[in-house]
Amino acid sequence: MRKSRLDINQEVSIEITEGSHKGSYKSKILDFDKKFIELELPFDEDNNPLPLKKKTGLVIFFNTSTALYKFESAVKKRKKKPVYSLVIYNTDKFQRIQRRCFVRIPIQEEIGYRVVSYQNIEKKVDLVTDDKEFKRANTMDISGGGLMLALKDLGEITKGQMLEINLNFINLPINILNGEVVRVQRKEILNENSSTYLLGVKFVNIPKDVREEIIEWVFSKQRELRKKGLI
Asked: Domain named Type III secretion system flagellar brake protein YcgR PilZN: which ranges (predicted)?
């Protein structure tokens, strides 16, 4: 018999797909069997348990040691004892999500970056720092797989260039991440008669726990933006 990908106390993200509480919420698995899964019931911003009705549609996201998965479900019932919990249907129809399918949200935050070169990215052998000081740029969006940067001056940066990125607007175990430029786009600003360069940057060789922190931050920010009607 195939071993379940689910575990007790496993952290998950709940995507509510309809109603006034539409958005993403953190939770964890309390119990499960072949038919049902019991989850911690998320609380709203006023610290009240979400009043989710029966048959409310949900999408559950969870990670294993090898991949990110999701599956669709619906609310069966809520429970108050011994803790507030949510019982949903266990469809066991898990869909593996490719890294490019990470949830991406628009966000404008200032970060630091500098151009670097590695002969071996994993061991960072023979580091050559072309720009000793971090330059400033603004993010345009971010996901667990990477981000987009907006630069006024492209300098010598081309596709394939390695960067060190000081991602200081998220509380991470480490702040300096490696990224590879996978796309370069020039954007004309007509009313200013100038150009901005957009860099698509893919995170490279970052620890799993750091990537998970970024994903959780994205889910939280996505919920906040949706409640404000910004996305």
From this structure: 8-88
